[in-house]
Amino acid sequence: MRGVRRPLAALALVVALLVLSGCAGAGELGTGGRTLVVAIVSNPQMKDAVALSGQFERENPGIRLKFVQLPENQSRPKITASTATQGGEFDVVMISNYEVPQWAANGWLENLQPHIDASPGYDADDFVPSIRDSLSYRGSMYAVPFYGESSFLVYRKDLFERAGLRMPPHPTWPQIADLAAKLDDKEHGVSGICLRGKPGWGENLAPFDTVVNTFGARWFDEHWNAQLTSPEFRAAAHFYVDLVRRHGEVGASSAGFSECGARYAQGQAAMWYDATSAAGTVEDPTSSKIVGKSGYAAAPVLRTPDSGWLYSWALAVPKAARDKDAAWRFMRWMTDQKYARTVGNTLGWNRVPPGSRQSTYRIPEYMNAAHAYAVPTLEGIDRATQRNTMTGPVPYPGIQFVGIPEFQDLGTRVGQQLSAAIAGQISVDEALRQSQQYADSVGRSYRETR
């Protein structure tokens, strides 16, 4: 993590860009009294929490909840700008292990450790250790995980059997490309694979960066020299773009996690490489036509033993929040051990948020429902380290992201270039040349402050 701390002026520039891009009008969401305003990403598990939140209000009659639900690409800039400027619009924010260490170091977040320690039975030691550590700063937790994830490959067992094919338990990317070609059935509306193409550092760059890593590439070398036109990075980009263009989904350049999930669950893709948290949607009979028909394999590799990412959607309290005690009471409810049973008994066990608490994996009903993907999820999270997923050292934290403040802007710009290449608007080499310029300007500022 050498060189990661930056001058406040550079960070202020990033925040200013985010304010301009996504935060106009946020001040209209001000809190008052005992109403908690909760900024949340509109993924399926989070929507379930909103649907169940009436239980919290009944148990806490003095507290009302107001949710601001936004897609990931919209929620990030709005939450970032509000938290960084101490705007006070939100009492609880949903962020990830990308933001937590940086924001804690900047003094933007409430230290949750005193609240955790004063909550008998909450049991923070029950959190999956790597997820807990990723949400901590100097030994204290500054966010608590709603769910944790790595990445893996979901595939249609029935289509494989019909085609006389077999999925290796630890596939390589060349093997996946070969399988995608054989399973591609455009005539019947089934693509060989679904891969994110929607621009955004949390969208197409999440799976793409794992390909970058296992191909032996990196964003910056140890001296902060940008590496986006290196032979390894070029090979990874050409592979990813060629695979999704030849055997990926229709409209791939605008397909993200939600779009790929919907296509796969509707039987329109033979394989899908994405987050382990997707399994709940795939196996949920209310949203999927292919329940029980999927297998789960480790994230594909090339030159590394593993290539899954490490990620957590988590809840935090901005420093400017007006009622931190009430905020903690809500966060405790949404991340407590009991919440898993509430979801399972009310909505179905496949909809329980995965990868955050070890105790979830000791619930017989959950393990019965999640038997196909529970172990692959935990194994993926456990194996998701830079040592296992990269071929050499890098000067930044993170696996599927570069853990520096500038990456919100840099990653989104590069994601736009990648999406344009997938759409056929520019060549891969053109996309990488432009991306290299973006990355070089960031790397140069780090070299100057070493």
UniProtKB/TrEMBL annotation:
Keyword check for Signal? yes
Could you list this entry's UniProt keywords, alphabetically sorted.
Answer: Signal
Q: What residue range is the signal peptide?
A: 1-26
Domain of life, source organism: Bacteria
Asked whether the UniProt record includes Lyase among its keywords, one would answer no
PANTHER family named in the record: ARABINOSE-BINDING PROTEIN-RELATED (PTHR43649), DIACETYLCHITOBIOSE BINDING PROTEIN DASA (PTHR43649:SF12)
Name assigned to this protein: ABC transporter substrate-binding protein
Specify the species. Saccharopolyspora rosea
